[in-house]
Amino acid sequence: MIAALLLLAGTVTELGPSPLAAEGHQPRWQTIPVDDKGEGWIDAGWHDRATLDERPVELVLLRMNLEDDGGQPMLLDAIMAVDCPAQTIGMKESWLFLSRYGNNFRAPITKVTMDFADTPLSIGDLAILAHACTGAKAEK
Q1: What is the pLDDT of residue 12?
Q2: pTM of the model
Q3: CB distance 53 to 111 below 8 Å
Q4: What is the pLDDT of residue 68?
Q5: What is the enclosing helix (H) or strand (E) of 31?
Q6: Which of 6, 20, 48, 101 would be 59's cystine partner, CB 3.0–4.6 Å?
């Protein structure tokens, strides 16, 4: 299974719908820019809203193929919480297809911390904010 996932690294969208999306959801993956250690996609067909710490947030679904801090491959889906007025991003849920911590499981996230975005905002952060806050298409 791990070898199959690694072979899909260049075509991660072939993994199909996210395990974090409702059954039957048809994803519309669009490339978003990330740093030089990976690639990412945003599901333009998935959007939701929630309240965190009494603040409304937009929810978007990402798929990322990255290297972790130790240089190990990591393939995951994540539901990101986006606070548009504050321009902050936090990870609300994630599914790890491939990681040093194990494969094919929902990672436990007990508290959403809105510290995912870089300072200053990276081009990837800006793409996530634009999609969540204005509905703008992700840049390829």
Answers
A1: 65
A2: 0.86
A3: no
A4: 84
A5: strand 29-32
A6: 48
Question: Taking Cα atoms as reference points, which of 135, 117, 115 lies closest to residue 126?
Answer: 117
- Point out which residues pair with 48 in neighbouring strands: 59
> What are the tens digits of pLDDT across the range 64-103?
988 888 888 899 999 999 999 999 999 999 999 999 999 9
| Alpha-carbon span 137 to 113, nearest angstrom | 25
Angle in degrees, CA 138, 109, 62, rounded to 5: 15
SS3 category, 1: coil
Phi, then psi, of 74 in degrees rounded to 5: -140, 125
Smallest CA-to-CA distance from 33 within 112, 128, 120 is with 128
Cβ atoms of residues 132 and 116 within 8 Å = no
Cα separation, 101 vs 75, whole angstroms: 11
The overall average pLDDT reported for the chain is: 86
Q: Are 19 and 125 in contact (CB under 8 A)?
A: no
Is the preceding omega at residue 120 within 30 degrees of 0, hence cis? Answer: yes
